[in-house]
């Protein structure tokens, strides 16, 4: 069995962060989100992984490398023809996949627990396809199954009137018959080759299509608030380890907090977990509250931050309280009175959101 991970697209809903960073490399709990997908696949015993990337993209390759870190071999597959839907990604990977069964894993999906049981069910039940579903409050955003007598009879993409509260998640397992489906489905009304249509094709042709419900949490990180929730979910399971930082005597640390090597926390700082703080950071006279991830080389002074993701090399010294925020690489947030004339001075990129 092989695996195919998606890591292309433009992620317009996450701009301006994704103007400069591939969405799949945005860190959750200080780890690029695509790393979680690779870890799940490697844990399931799969050692050959193809990663679908945009044409000319070197960013994913530089970050992920050959796969040796996870004991896998990674092949990069450029998405010829541009973004034309998930079924087109499968079709585009035909030479890599050959006649092998494979896990199709959307690289921006985060789940709790192992996917081994999905692979075992696929093999033990001799399935042609296995689809992973999860209960969601807004199924109209996803591919939604219609289930009758325990069998999937149809998948409808982004329906206005969903037949159930289940969503097709970003994890699928297929045998070689999916290639017949992706070759024969027409484009949808939005001009894309939908994986939901390919799944329905297999069902209509009488192939053995099974499903498994994800019982833990699952998160599709398509919007900024989804990233923050995904970060929360991972931090809840944060493993404690010995703090390698320089922590001054006046600092208070509560709950699960991980501070990496080379960082300094001083003054009257309070760190209340779950929180992860990267390498070579300086936190001075600040409060870092629950569900906050702080990347490497960040400086925070006289500021309160909670439920936020702060990327590498950011500098924050504003004397204010920051919540529910994404702060990009090398961003600077300072107090409005630090320079003249007084007032809020902004350099705001496309699709930014600012609350003053």
UniProtKB/TrEMBL annotation:
**Source species, domain of life:** Bacteria
InterPro entries per the UniProt record, alphabetical: G1P_thy_trans_l (IPR005908), Hexapep_transf_CS (IPR018357), NTP_transferase_dom (IPR005835), Nucleotide-diphossugar_trans (IPR029044)
Q: Which PROSITE patterns match?
A: HEXAPEP_TRANSFERASES
Q: Domain Nucleotidyl transferase spans what residues?
A: 2-235
Q: Which CDD domains match?
A: G1P_TT_long (cd04189)
Extract one GO molecular function annotation from the record.
transferase activity
Q: Name one Pfam family in it.
A: NTP_transferase
For whether the record's keyword set contains Transferase, the answer is yes
As given in the record, the signal peptide range reads none
Keywords attached to this Swiss-Prot or TrEMBL record, sorted alphabetically, are: Transferase
| Name used for this protein in its record | Glucose-1-phosphate thymidylyltransferase
């Amino acid at each position: 069995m092989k695996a195919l991970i998606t890591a292309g697209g433009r992620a317009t809903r996450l701009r301006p962060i994704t103007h400069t960073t591939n969405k799949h490399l945005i860190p959750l709990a200080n780890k690029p989100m695509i790393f979680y997908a690779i870890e799940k696949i490697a844990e399931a015993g799969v050692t050959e992984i193809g990663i679908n990337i945009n044409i000319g993209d070197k960013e994913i390759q530089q970050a992920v490398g050959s796969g040796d870190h996870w004991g896998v071999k990674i092949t990069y597959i450029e998405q010829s023809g541009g973004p034309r839907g998930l079924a087109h990604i499968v079709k585009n990977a035909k030479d890599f996949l050959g006649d092998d069964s494979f896990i199709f894993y959307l690289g921006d999906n985060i789940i709790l627990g192992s996917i081994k049981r999905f692979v075992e069910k696929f093999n033990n039940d001799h399935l042609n396809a296995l689809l992973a579903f999860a209960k969601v409050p807004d199924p109209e955003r996803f591919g939604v199954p219609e289930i009758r007598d325990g069998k999937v009879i149809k998948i409808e993409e982004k329906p206005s009137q969903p037949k159930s509260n289940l969503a097709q998640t970003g994890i699928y397992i297929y045998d070689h018959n999916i290639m017949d489906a992706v070759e024969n489905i027409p484009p949808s009304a939005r001009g894309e080759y939908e994986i939901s249509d390919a799944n329905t094709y297999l069902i209509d042709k009488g192939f053995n299509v099974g499903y498994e419900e994800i019982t833990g949490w699952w998160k599709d990180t398509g919007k900024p608030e989804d990233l923050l929730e995904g970060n929360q979910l991972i931090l809840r399971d944060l493993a404690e380890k010995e703090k390698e930082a320089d922590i001054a005597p006046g600092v208070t640390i509560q709950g699960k907090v991980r501070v990496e090597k080379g960082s300094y926390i001083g003054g009257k700082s309070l760190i209340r977990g779950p929180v992860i703080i990267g390498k070579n950071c300086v936190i001075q006279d600040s409060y870092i509250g629950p569900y906050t991830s702080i990347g490497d080389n960040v400086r925070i002074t006289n500021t309160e931050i909670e439920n936020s993701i702060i990327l590498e090399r950011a500098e924050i010294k504003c004397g204010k309280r920051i919540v529910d925020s994404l702060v990009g690489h090398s961003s600077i947030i300072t107090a409005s009175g630090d320079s003249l004339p007084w007032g809020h001075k902004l350099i705001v990129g496309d699709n930014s959101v600012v609350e003053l």
